[in-house]
Amino acid sequence: AYQKIAHNFFIPDDLREELQRKAEAARQVLPNSALPEVEHYHTLVPLDTNNQRNVTLFGYPSWVYKAVSSKDGKTYILRRLENYRLTNEKAIRSVQSWKRINNGGVVKIHDAFTTRAFGDSSLIFVTDYFPRSKTLAQEHLNYTPSYNRGRPMTNQIPEATLWGYITQIASALKAIHSNGLAARVINLSKVIVTSKNRVRLNGCAILDVTQHDIPRPLQELQAEDLTQLGRLILCLANNNQNATLNIQKSLEHVGRTCSLQLKDCVTWLLTAAPAAPTTLQSPGGTNATPEKTIDTFLQAITTQIINTFDNTLHANDIIASALALELENGRLFRIVSKLNFITERPEFDHNPLWAETGERYYLKLFRDFLYHSVDAQGKPVTDLGHVIAALNKVDAGSEEKCMLVSRDEQNVLMVSYRDVKRMVESCFLELVKGGARR
Amino acid sequence: AYQKIAHNFFIPDDLREELQRKAEAARQVLPNSALPEVEHYHTLVPLDTNNQRNVTLFGYPSWVYKAVSSKDGKTYILRRLENYRLTNEKAIRSVQSWKRINNGGVVKIHDAFTTRAFGDSSLIFVTDYFPRSKTLAQEHLNYTPSYNRGRPMTNQIPEATLWGYITQIASALKAIHSNGLAARVINLSKVIVTSKNRVRLNGCAILDVTQHDIPRPLQELQAEDLTQLGRLILCLANNNQNATLNIQKSLEHVGRTCSLQLKDCVTWLLTAAPAAPTTLQSPGGTNATPEKTIDTFLQAITTQIINTFDNTLHANDIIASALALELENGRLFRIVSKLNFITERPEFDHNPLWAETGERYYLKLFRDFLYHSVDAQGKPVTDLGHVIAALNKVDAGSEEKCMLVSRDEQNVLMVSYRDVKRMVESCFLELVKGGARR
Ligand SMILES: Nc1ncnc2c1ncn2[C@@H]1O[C@H](COP(=O)(O)OP(=O)(O)OP(=O)(O)O)[C@@H](O)[C@H]1O
Ligand SMILES: Nc1ncnc2c1ncn2[C@@H]1O[C@H](COP(=O)(O)OP(=O)(O)OP(=O)(O)O)[C@@H](O)[C@H]1O
Ligand SMILES: [Mg+2]
Ligand SMILES: [Mg+2]
Q: How many whole angstroms separate alpha carbon B197 and alpha carbon B164?
């Protein structure tokens, strides 16, 4: 059956709050940090939450810091491999091809260099920073099981989410493989969730440097990428970091909890015959069984790709409307700022021509109307909705009238929002021109 | 070769301005309009720019209006078919299945009904409204040729744009065909461009109603959708509304100006053998040649789909950052509003406790600092950048200090932005509580 589209697949319920939390996380600094500056990167903040030094993946303990570049003021990630000694200059040059990979499913790599800034000899990879990211392991597998009537509740990941991961990573692999590279690390700790249901490959380029002296055929590495993707999804679908220890049993679990299509997909990734290395292929021989390449895989999951694609289009529409709404707020901020520039300027305190006559007098009362209203009981009205509604009418030049009351309550003036708009513009212009001198 | 990703494929250079123009277009009304209300839709505005009544597509002259629903306050499109008489109630019920189609490449259909509001008997389709949309014909084929050294310049559409259209429409057709429907109208005037490079099928559901009494096999209609898509792309690639009059010559032109892949794709769409109608298929017979179905087509263009998919992901990231920035503006608007609520309230004009002492005095001077600064020449500083920078420091609670000068220039107070932040919060809270009475 054609899968139903979840309109908010990529959109968190609290989109605005989440974006604000991200902005905060990006701004966060570490007071009294003893961390060094590394080339032109300063204000390092460590992001590793566990102190376990995992050396199995890269062969070196690695650390992740966010840092600010003094060249462009932007925030980046520095991944540091401790105690790495560069023996061959060519090794680090292999990063050049990675800099060209610009894909929505790959954490972009900007640079790599060695440094003594940490007191040892470290290898540094500079990549894009995505505030508040979590690794797939952190997102899905580090849960404290909650018990439901005595039975442990599993955090079964929805199949739609799994397909979202598969299609995004497949799209990333397409870009990587088409550029003559292999991801080499597709791991629960090296795929990061950067926003709702959105994932990116995070460990790329590293092994190309550290294992530069142990070359392996590209075709083999690329086929292995697909196998690693299969293992990743198997673990996620089983909610178990060790699901690969018993592949048969784990696949059966997938068969019970997910669609047949997902099970077939994982099975293919794990078991398909790798593409015969070109060196072994008989001349002119064609292989009847489909090869284990990213293209074959993409063809097999076209329906799911189209599905994720449509989810992305919907997400675009939703974020664009949210942006349009916020732009309206920006407009209001500019109007109210103009009003503030104009009214109650101290240098005109004793200049009756400026302060108390004509348009500026209206605007002063209008500002009172916006912010200084009191209710029937004389209590201050502090409702931002009133302010926003009134400013929107000013901006739209509405013919509707509002009642302005002088501070001594002796005068009541009726004025249309359209008039207020005109007066704001003309007084502000006068101010900018410096025409209204003491 | 793997196509380079254009990061801004779906993002106009002036994203913010474009969104604002859209908001304006959506608000626009027609003064003194003689157009009727149609059921609960009011404030109709006609969107057809040419007065030619084109009857060939639907068999009836059609009109397009934007209108506001009094039920939800949202703006919709009403398409009116003039002089349509409903003879069979079942005809209009066929729209039910269309209401379920919720795809990023299909203009969503909300309702259909007949009405006498226009004085005749009209058939109305209610759909989503996309401000400032243009039909593909308006976007690409209505150009006034500009001459370049005596030779006419053609507005050749970039191939990436064509692939963008093909993949989006293919994705739309997948959703439509999977739901047992056919688009039936894929036409230069019935595919609309709703934002940069973003297209949607716009004429759906209409023929299912008007030709309800002339049923045709679904498989045939679906195969025809693909042929129509081929004709559409052929016209666009040739920059010529009539390119289908000489298909061979037009295909050759595509071969010269575009990639072989695009030419093959259009050729397949135009010429592939339609799927054999089920009624004619020999029992158990399998067809060796691939059938002309949307699934076969999707498989053939997987690489391009992945490409558009990635463009969409990038667009998402870009719009989300723009939104995050605007949210910061919203924050500033709220702070400055609080400041305005607090300072210079008329009811406290003569209450020295409120107006001139303690925190409120600081805030009054801070507001002067924000908006009423003068430069060395005594000229008003009307720079919004100064305001924004200072408010951001308040919001961030910066330790940095600013210098506040009393209006009589007798007092100079140093205060940190962090203190200002605290004072704004506490004074505003007091105000909300109504604690600061006369
Ligand atoms: N590009 C990035 N942007 C933002 N956060 C990131 C980025 N890369 C990693 N992180 C975050 O930094 C933390 C550490 O990442 P790391 O890759 O070291 O994972 P780990 O769980 O510590 O695995 P390992 O044991 O291999 O070090 C994780 O929370 C991860 O989400
Ligand atoms: N859903 C919609 N949202 C916004 N604008 C739309 C929508 N549908 C159509 N329009 C706009 O309304 C105008 C008229 O559309 P219409 O489909 O009638 O095209 P047309 O060129 O007049 O073709 P025809 O000759 O068949 O009437 C076009 O400019 C189109 O972009
Ligand atoms: Mg780590
Ligand atoms: Mg029309």
A: 7
Residue B148 pLDDT greater than 80, yes or no: no
Residue A222 CB coordination number (10 Å): 22
Distance in angstroms (rounded) separating the CA atoms of residues B113 and A306: 32
Burial class of B256 by CB neighbour count within 10 A (0 to 12, 13 to 18, 19+) = exposed
Q: Give the tokens for residue B232.
A: 């559409």
- Set of chain A residues whose Cβ sits within 8 Å of the Cβ of B222: none
- To the nearest whole Å, the CA of B104 is away from the closest chain A CA by 6
Ligand 1: residue whose CA is nearest its atom 2: A129
**Distance of CA A53 from the midpoint of ligand 3 (Å):** 7
For residue B354, the one-letter residue type is: W
Q: Where are the alpha helices (DSSP H) in B343-405?
A: 352-355, 358-371, 384-396
CB-ligand 2 contact for B55 (6 Å cutoff): no
**Distance from the B375 Cα atom to the nearest Cα atom in chain A, whole angstroms:** 11
Q: Distance, in angstroms, between B134 CA and closest chain A CA?
A: 17
CB A348 within 8 A of CB A436: yes
B196 closest CA partner among B2, B3, B19: B19
Residue to substitute in B133, B141, B190, B198 for testing ligand 2 pocket (most ligand atoms within 8 angstroms of CB): B133
> Which whole number is the average pLDDT over B75-82?
97
Question: For position A338, what pLDDT does the model report?
Answer: 87
Sign of the Cα pseudo-torsion (A178, A184, A190, A196, in order): positive
pLDDT in tens, B251-288: 999 999 999 999 999 999 999 777 655 444 444 444 45
Closest CA to A10 of A310, A305, A326: A310
Query: Encoding tokens for residue A330?
Result: 């920006």
Tell me if residue B64 falls in helix, strand or coil.
strand
pTM of the model: 0.81
* Residue B25 beta carbon below 6 angstroms from any ligand 2 atom: no
Name the residue facing A322 among B23, B323, B434 (closest C-beta). B323
- Tokens 């004709």 map to which residue? B231
Beta carbons of A185 and A203 less than 8 angstroms apart? yes
- Hey, is B199 helix, strand or coil? strand
Separation CA B438–CA A288 (nearest Å)? 90
How sure is the predictor about A3, in pLDDT bands with cuts at 50, 70 and 90?
very low
Is residue B65 a contact partner of residue B78, using CB atoms and an 8 Å limit?
yes
Looking at the DSSP bridge assignments, the partners of residue A79 are A64, A125
> Is residue B39 within 8 Å of B116, Cβ to Cβ?
no
Cβ neighbours of residue B149 closer than 8 Å, sequence gap 6 or more: none
Q: Give pLDDT tens digits for B291-347.
A: 899 999 999 999 999 999 999 999 999 999 889 888 877 778 888 888 888 887 776
Spatial contact of B18 and B324, defined as CB atoms under 8 Å apart? no
CB neighbours of B50 closer than 8 A, spacing ≥ 6?
none
pLDDT, average across residues A44-68: 88
Residues 6+ apart with CB under 8 A from A280: none
List A residues 26-65 in contact with B (Cβ-Cβ < 8 A).
27
Cα separation, A12 vs A5, in Å, equals 15
Highest mean pLDDT among A380-389, B18-27, B208-217: B208-217
Selection from A193, A186, A183 nearest residue A138 by Cα: A193
